[in-house]
Sequence to fold (66 residues):
Amino acid sequence: MAEHRPFTRSRTDRWFAGVLGGIAQRFGWNATLLRIVYVVVSIASVAFPGILVYLILWLLMPEEGS
Fold:
């Protein structure tokens, strides 16, 4: 059975708040690639939804180790 890791913001892999770094750690993805995809999708959707989703995740996701 796979190890269950909760969604947490990364303390070590962050550019801003650690949201995308935490998601990448959770799923074993490349954080830089995830950031690039997230920015491209956000720009393609006129940026507002991407920024709003990021802010909501920042508020809801606890920081790693807390």
Notes: The mean pLDDT is 84. Residues 31-44 form the longest helix (14 residues).
